[in-house]
Amino acid sequence: QVQLVESGGGLVQPGGSLKLSCAAYGFTFVSYTMSWYRQDPGKERDFVASITWSGGSTNYADSVKGRFTISRDNAKNTVYLHINSLKPEDTAVYFCRTAVGGRIYWGRGTQVTVSS
């Protein structure tokens, strides 16, 4: 059974940094692209970043380019999102996503709150 478990969120001051993690279970992690999305209450879930199976190709939303870095450790079945220079507008629940066998899977999310 595919399972994605996010961690690493929290309360951070503007300009601060966080490292989010997403541990993956139940599928051949090394074979699949992994993505991060985020969602504010009452708004749609927005794409943040993605990384291909080898880590050789990454893609970012314009709003996070230069501040966020996605990476993965295939030996640990884990994908990361390194977040720097946090802004209040980065406040959201951050979700991990993958698509396996034509079906999309989401984690439960981890809350990031940016506030002084």
Question: Biggest β-sheet, characterized?
Answer: 7 strands, mixed
What is the average per-residue confidence, as pLDDT, rounded to a whole number? 96
Describe the oligomeric state of these chains in a short phrase. single chain
Portion of residues within helices = under 10%
In angstroms, what separates the terminal alpha carbons? 40 Å
Q: How do the helices and strands follow one another from N- to C-terminus?
A: EEEEEEEEEEE
Q: Given the structure, what is the number of helices?
A: 0
Broad shape: globular
The rounded Rg comes to: 13 Å
Category by helix and strand content = mainly beta
Percent of residues in β-strands: over 45%
How many strands?
11
Stretches where pLDDT is under 50 for at least 5 consecutive residues are none
